[in-house]
Specification:
Elements: H1 15-38, H2 46-79, H3 91-121, H4 143-178, H5 182-187, H6 201-220
Helix pairs in contact: 1-2, 2-3, 3-4, 3-6, 4-6
């Protein structure tokens, strides 16, 4: 496939960018919706446990699809920068739009990556439905580590949902108030001719800083494992030793 010159004017997002955008959107909404639903499922009967098991497996598998789509979307944006803003004179709006986009792009990587780390640290439950193995070689099976990664994954999920809410709100503004071609550029690839977007180093750095701050806070606030009630039996020869004063 021929990649046109970077400086070429364009009317909207090119077909690969549009496909990756909507496939990633579909996958991320499916993963988030399933994630919120499955954590509320009852697990008292054998059939209910089996349903939870399947839901978690599908959720994890969709998460890996999100990771692949996110990597492809970012790579394409590096090779072929997106079209520039329709209203470059609106400095604050343009800055916020770029910031939300960068938050979402990082989220396409961070959300499934933290889920994979959690899965690797807590093996044996609800496998990912793919042929590439179930654990990362550098992540040991450890309960404390699994709890920390779970906290990271949950924090990443809330940050992605917040960014999505702002992204959708901005889209509605363009459709209902501005009545411009913003949505048409990502659906049909049509709109006014504009130069490619510049590299937004500041917004990318700020988005990365926000992600690092959020995940760092989640790491240090992760719950500790519950103490094992049978630890008191370690080193005892008989149960009578439990009644002996120290």
């Amino acid at each position: 496939m021929r990649i046109p010159p970077r400086a070429e004017q364009r009317h909207g997002y090119e077909l690969p960018a549009r496909l990756l955008h909507w496939l990633a959107a579909l996958a991320i909404f499916a993963a988030l919706g399933l994630g919120l639903w499955m954590t509320r499922l009852p697990a008292e009967t054998e059939a209910e446990v089996a349903t939870v098991f399947r839901a978690y497996s599908v959720h994890k598998t969709i998460g890996m699809a999100v990771l692949a789509l996110g990597m492809a979307r970012i790579l394409w944006a590096i090779l072929r920068p997106d079209p520039g803003p329709l209203h470059p004179e609106r400095a604050v709006e343009t800055f916020l739009a770029r910031l939300i986009h960068r938050l979402l792009w990082i989220g396409l990587l961070a959300l499934p990556a933290t889920g994979l780390l959690y899965h690797s640290a807590a093996p044996g439950f609800a496998p990912i439905l793919w042929p590439f193995g179930q654990a990362l070689p550098f992540v040991p099976a450890d309960e404390a580590l699994a709890l920390a990664f779970r906290n990271l994954h949950e924090a990443a999920g809330w940050l992605v949902m917040a960014a999505l809410a702002f992204h959708i709100a901005g889209t509605l503004k363009h459709v209902l108030i501005d009545r411009d071609a913003t949505l048409a550029r990502i659906t049909a690839g049509t709109g006014p001719s504009v130069p490619p977007a510049r590299r937004a180093i500041l917004t990318a750095a700020l988005a990365l800083a926000l992600w690092i701050a959020s995940l760092t806070a989640a790491w240090f606030t992760a719950p500790l494992p519950e103490p094992d009630p049978f630890d008191v039996l370690d080193g005892l020869e008989t149960f009578d030793d439990l009644d002996r004063p120290e």
